[in-house]
Amino acid sequence: MSDAAQHCSFQALVLAGDRGATDPLLAQSEACCKAMIEIDGTPMVLRVLTALRTAECIEGRLLSGPKPEQLAVEPEVHRLVESGEISWCEPRGTPSTSASHAMERIDSDTPVLITTADHPLLSAAIVDHFCRESAASDADLTVGLAPHRLVAEAFPEMKKTVLRFRDEHYCGCNLFAFLTPQARGFAEYWRQVESDRKNPLKIIRVLGWGAVIRYLLGWLSLDDALDSLSRKFGLRIRAVILPYAEAAVDVDSVRDHYIVQEKLTSRAGQRGAG
């Protein structure tokens, strides 16, 4: 068993830079940047940081973005950074380049959990489950996935990109674990995944046209895809299947924001009734 599995000690990296100026969700809000958009009165990035602060497997937290002037707008996030409880670094132009730049500040032997600021339903339970399973896997790199049937049942109105493998259909969870120094090089390939993240066929295409055909015919399993990806990059790449529908929820649109707001309002009402 690896040291990470024994101690389950991760550095968390939260990507909080904006993708670009043309974001309808940001345009309809009064926030200075996407990370600061409020849901139920709390900025999304603060919800993510709260989950990471209470997770048992997270020893340190690094925030990549937003810009300094945007940080100052939110008193609690600004306080966490100024106090040193949360480290901060300048974001780069894309999530992949921001991740590469930020990971240079983290010792190469330290396992890194990467997530995003638009993950408002992230919880300490999800984080700890993902980190413990990742640490126990002896992989170089893990990616979090949730069964689509679980996500569709909990959030039937939410439009999600679905990876349709032979054995199961999955949704991505914006959770990645870079467990070894060798895994850090995968951030370069992530640039391609990032640009194609809404198109599963383009992601599968990196494995070759044979894999694309098998995927289209419903013959490609998740393990087959990960084994091929592992061979291509000389890494051990594995999936952590999460039993939490909320793990697959990121807020990318005005509709996503409305659905998550309604979900939180419903939960608050149920707690009040209890």
Number of strands: 10
Secondary structure: helix percent? 40-55%
Mean pLDDT: 88
| Radius of gyration using CA atoms only | 18 Å
Low-confidence stretches: 1-6
Which structural class is indicated by helix and strand composition?
alpha/beta
CATH class equals: Alpha Beta
User: Order of SSEs, N→C?
Assistant: HEHEEHEHHEHEHEHEEHHHHEH
CA distance, first residue to last residue: 43 Å
CATH architect. name: Alpha-Beta Complex
Question: Any idea of the CATH topology?
Answer: Spore Coat Polysaccharide Biosynthesis Protein SpsA, Chain A
Q: State the CATH superfamily name.
A: Spore Coat Polysaccharide Biosynthesis Protein SpsA, Chain A
Give the count of structural domains: 1
Largest sheet: 8 strands, mixed
Described by the principal axes of the CA atoms, the overall outline is globular
- Oligomer state equals single chain
Can you walk through the features of this model?
By secondary structure, the chain is of the alpha/beta class. The protein has a single domain (3-268), classed as Alpha-Beta Complex (Spore Coat Polysaccharide Biosynthesis Protein SpsA, Chain A), CATH 3.90.550.10. Helix content is 42%, strand content 18%. It has 13 helices and 10 strands. The protein has helices spanning 3-7, 24-27, 44-54, 68-71, 75-82, 95-103, 124-136, 148-154, 187-195, 200-204, 209-216, 222-233, 254-273, and strands spanning 10-15, 38-39, 42-43, 58-64, 87-89, 112-116, 141-147, 163-164, 169-178, 237-241. The strands form 2 sheets. Strands 1, 4, 5, 6, 7, 8, 9 and 10 form an 8-stranded mixed β-sheet that branches. Helix 6 runs antiparallel to helix 9. The longest helix is centred in the C-terminal third of the chain and has 20 residues, at 254-273. The protein is globular, with a radius of gyration of 18 Å.
